[in-house]
Amino acid sequence: MTLATDARVAPVRAATFVPTSRRRRCTDGAARILVWASVAVALVPLAWILWTVTAKGLPAVASSTWFTNSLSGLSATTPGGGVYHAIIGTLLQGLVCSVIAIPLGISVAVYLVEYAGASRLGKVTTFMVDVLAGVPSIVAALFIYALWVVTFGFDRSGIAVALALVLLMVPMVVRSTEEMLRIVPTDLREAAFALGVPQWKTIAKVVLPTALPGIVTGTMLAIARVLGETAPLLILVGYAPFINFDLGSGEMGTLPGLIVDQMNNPGAVGADRMWGSALTLIGMVAILSIAATLLARRSTVRGGR
């Protein structure tokens, strides 16, 4: 009876919870304010750009002929026309670039993750990918010009632009694919090896399908990134106000090229076309980014939980 009374009076052990000190609460509050202020400062330029481009480009984009006509036959001061030719040119160059860059980038990433290990070739490949990722777009364009036009003697064309974009897109595909392959659980590989499955078949049937959603997301972001490059267009193909489906020869209209061309048109018509082209290009990139975001929600590696 005496023991029970003592147990009610004194706790079994001292309380372990210690209230947060005032100094720590003040520091946490200051850090929160600093973070929110940084986010606000970073969003102001983005919001300003989107508002300006939308306000000035929407009248041109709202035209009934904007997406169905080209500027062929129209003078710099004649209103009307559209960007049909520029959209076609941008998509064709992006398609050729993707066909070359995506398999190449994924293959390099598979080698680095699955085969290279700590080998010297793997270290050299990683170093070269890092160097290529930091190459400015105009340097890539000049390299393709020296190789494709000066050395091989081919004409300036959409193919040359696509090759320059490949140099810019491959490092992005390699890095995004590499990250997704590294988070595939090792248990999946070991289970396949234990069943006697060869390594190449394990990669093709287990590793790549598991990481596929993330690879697709990174690839789409890379495509969106290279579609707005301007330096390769100015050096390797020029600009044409008409539709050109031939990637092997002739000038070709693209959205970045149209923006640069209309900057030299000082009239109101040129300004409308320039801002409308910028809004159209942002819309194309936004569509790809939104699609990549939706895929990212499903990019969790299956079996990784």
UniProtKB/TrEMBL annotation:
Return the PANTHER family for the record: PHOSPHATE TRANSPORT SYSTEM PERMEASE PROTEIN PSTA (PTHR42922:SF1)
* Highest classification ranks of the organism: Bacteria, Bacillati, Actinomycetota, Actinomycetes, Mycobacteriales
Q: Which Gene3D superfamilies match?
A: MetI-like (1.10.3720.10)
What is the name listed in the Swiss-Prot or TrEMBL entry for this protein? Phosphate transport system permease protein PstA
Subcellular location per the Swiss-Prot or TrEMBL entry: Cell membrane
> Its gene?
pstA
Q: Where does the ABC transmembrane type-1 domain start and stop, copy by copy? A: 87-296
Membrane topology, from the record: Multi-pass membrane protein
Pfam families hit by this protein: BPD_transp_1
GO biological process, alphabetically ordered: phosphate ion transmembrane transport
Q: What functional role does this protein have?
A: Part of the binding-protein-dependent transport system for phosphate; probably responsible for the translocation of the substrate across the membrane.
**Transmembrane intervals:** 33-51, 83-113, 125-150, 156-174, 274-296
